[in-house]
Task: inverse folding
């Protein structure tokens, strides 16, 4: 085997060491080039000419290798981000980076995702009870048709995160900032929110009956078609917050609004006027 051919290919393939498909290409190519080199020598070509003609015969090998490596790495990333239909209870995902990960129809109860970067990931139709998402980056994540009972999202990064038709029984959000988050068609009666900031959050068709939201901040938040009987916003700050009924206001909706506690809440004039029109008890509200 010609040493010059070996050295040439080693130099071309050096940036892609460890990529399995590239290693296989290198082995096959070296075998073919060696055969071609011998044929040229048997035809009477000197070493330098045979070497040059052998290399020229394979075209733009660097471009080919780059494309093979790129495809291989893309496939590897897909494998490493697809955890669908997996049995992974109590798994350790703490501090990992998994962008656009897929966690569908999986057993993930008790798993640790704390401080992980899960940007763009999807969790659907899975068992995620008792999971730990504390401090995790959940930007653009989707949680749909899940059992998230007793999971924790303390100080999580929640930006454009979507919770849809999921069980949040016993779930805790402590010290979290929720920005442009959607929580739709979800039972929140036994969910805990403490020291949270809500910006542009949409609670559509969700059940917040008896939920305590005291002392928290709400800006541009929408409570559309929500059940809010007995909910409490004591000492909360509400700016541009809307409470939208599903249909024309009825006596039932007025009765529900009267059960919400806004004692010592601070709100802007527009929010105040809208709630006053719905006959909410605003006797102890501070308007600023």
Result:
């Amino acid at each position: 085997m010609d040493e010059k051919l070996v050295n040439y290919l080693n130099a071309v393939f050096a940036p892609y060491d460890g990529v399995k498909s590239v290693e296989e290409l290198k082995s096959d190519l070296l075998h073919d080039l060696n055969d071609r080199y011998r044929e040229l020598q048997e035809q009477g070509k000197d070493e330098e000419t045979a070497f040059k003609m052998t290399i020229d015969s394979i075209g733009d090998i660097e471009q080919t290798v780059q494309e093979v490596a790129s495809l291989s790495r893309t496939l590897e990333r897909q494998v490493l981000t697809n955890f669908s239909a997996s049995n992974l209870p109590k798994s350790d995902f703490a501090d990992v980076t998994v962008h656009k990960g897929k966690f569908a129809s999986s057993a993930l109860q008790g798993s640790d995702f704390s401080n992980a970067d899960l940007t763009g990931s999807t969790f659907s139709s899975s068992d995620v009870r008792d999971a730990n998402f504390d401090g995790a980056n959940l930007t653009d994540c989707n949680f749909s048709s899940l059992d998230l009972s007793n999971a924790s999202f303390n100080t999580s990064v929640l930006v454009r995160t979507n919770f849809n038709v999921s069980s949040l029984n016993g779930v805790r959000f402590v010290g979290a900032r929720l920005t442009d988050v959607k929580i739709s068609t979800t039972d929140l009666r036994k969910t805990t929110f403490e020291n949270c900031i809500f910006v542009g959050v949409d609670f559509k068709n969700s059940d917040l009956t008896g939920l305590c939201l005291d002392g928290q901040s709400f800006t541009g938040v929408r409570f559309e078609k929500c059940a809010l009987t007995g909910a409490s916003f004591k000492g909360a700050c509400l700016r541009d917050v809307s409470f939208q009924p599903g249909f024309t206001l009825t006596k039932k909706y007025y009765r529900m609004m009267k059960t919400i506690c806004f004692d010592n809440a601070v709100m802007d004039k527009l929010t105040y006027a809208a709630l006053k029109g719905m006959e909410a008890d605003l006797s102890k509200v501070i308007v600023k």
Remarks:
- The helical segments are 3-13, 20-42, 47-56, 61-81, 251-258, 269-277.
